[in-house]
Automatic annotation (TrEMBL):
Descriptive protein name: Angiopoietin-like 7
Signal peptide: 1-20
Keywords: Coiled coil, Disulfide bond, Glycoprotein, Secreted, Signal
Gene: ANGPTL7
Superkingdom, natural source: Eukaryota
Amino acid sequence: MNFSNVALVVALILLTETKAQNPKKKPAPPKIAKGQCCDEVRTLKVQVANLTSILEELSRKQETDLINVVRQIMELDKQKQQLDNRVTEAESKYSEVNNRVEIMQLQTLQSATQTSSDAIYDCASLYGKSYKISGEYKLPKDEFLGTPELSVFCDMETNGGGWTLIQRRKIGLTSFKRDWKQYKSGFGSVRGDFWLGNEHIFRLTRQPSTLRIEMEDWEGETRYAEYGFFTLGNELNSYKLFIANYSGNAGNSLRYHNNTNFSTVNRDNDKCVDDCASLRKGGYWYNCCTDSNLNGVFYRYGEHKKNTDGITWYGWHGPNYSLKKIEMKIRPVSFQP
Ligand SMILES: *[C@@H]1O[C@H](CO)[C@@H](O)[C@H](O)[C@H]1NC(C)=O
Ligand SMILES: *[C@@H]1O[C@H](CO)[C@@H](O)[C@H](O)[C@H]1NC(C)=O
Ligand SMILES: *[C@@H]1O[C@H](CO)[C@@H](O)[C@H](O)[C@H]1NC(C)=O
Ligand SMILES: *[C@@H]1O[C@H](CO)[C@@H](O)[C@H](O)[C@H]1NC(C)=O
Ligand SMILES: *[C@@H]1O[C@H](CO)[C@@H](O)[C@H](O)[C@H]1NC(C)=O
């Protein structure tokens, strides 16, 4: 609609209103001739009618436009809602799966710890519950033994399985030159290089236990040493080592460390004037000093024959050959595969 048309409409409206409001007043004398007047009025009326219809159409159109816009917004809202729903659904499914896994684990643990004779406190008891795949397991905290939850690595294959690893050397990035506190609580990652911790080893070996040490050299050969009996004293007794009944093909190189306290760089309990933990750069049952040094320095191929502070086992490769891989593992003497 153009401006002149609007002006026309307004003028017309004013005219009719004036007429209606002043019915008794004498109308102002028409300034134009009658025929001209009526023709113009007619034209104006037609225009008004047209304009009205245009206006109506416009407002109808606006209304439909508005309705369309609202509809589109609602549609978008709906889509957004559907997306939100899908996200929520996916999230709840995910957490449901997670929950189910956690509940399954919890049920396993609860059914497993119902009676104390059934308690899971090492890989052998897990094996007894038909967990026969080697890998990382979480031992539940045990109220009876007063022990915390503990991550362990279980060897469920070697010689019947049921072995709880207490030490591993294979990657060589974790330093084993650690202090008393660290050797006490353990360090490293059970999937890689680690020491389980003297306190845990002490606790686990309160049941009569067997120790098995597996080793590999840089030529890919393997040997093992097994002790039918293995236990540690408590911290007050400096985690003193007690071993008996050697068997294996690597040599009895732990015997020299039998009945010896544990030493670290900051706790010298060895039977020597020298500070063996500092000389051999590890934590171990240093006598004066070593016939083996399984927590010594990891030397890579090429460097492995040059030092006396490496991962040594004198009974196989002598005092200056650092081995490539070590695993120390324990299981109850009573274990039946
Ligand atoms: C009014 O509308 C009719 C049809 O809608 C059209 O033929 C006519 O020319 C219009 N008149 C004016 C003055 O706009
Ligand atoms: C060593 O083995 C013998 C024979 O099997 C056994 O009688 C003895 O009790 C074992 N020693 C220890 C400390 O377990
Ligand atoms: C081992 O440690 C205990 C106390 O922790 C101590 O009484 C004993 O004398 C130590 N033995 C040796 C050989 O150092
Ligand atoms: C370790 O010492 C004890 C005595 O304290 C002995 O009975 C045992 O046989 C020794 N172990 C080894 C492997 O010699
Ligand atoms: C390693 O030990 C052997 C004997 O045990 C010795 O002859 C050799 O010199 C040693 N090598 C080094 C690099 O110390």
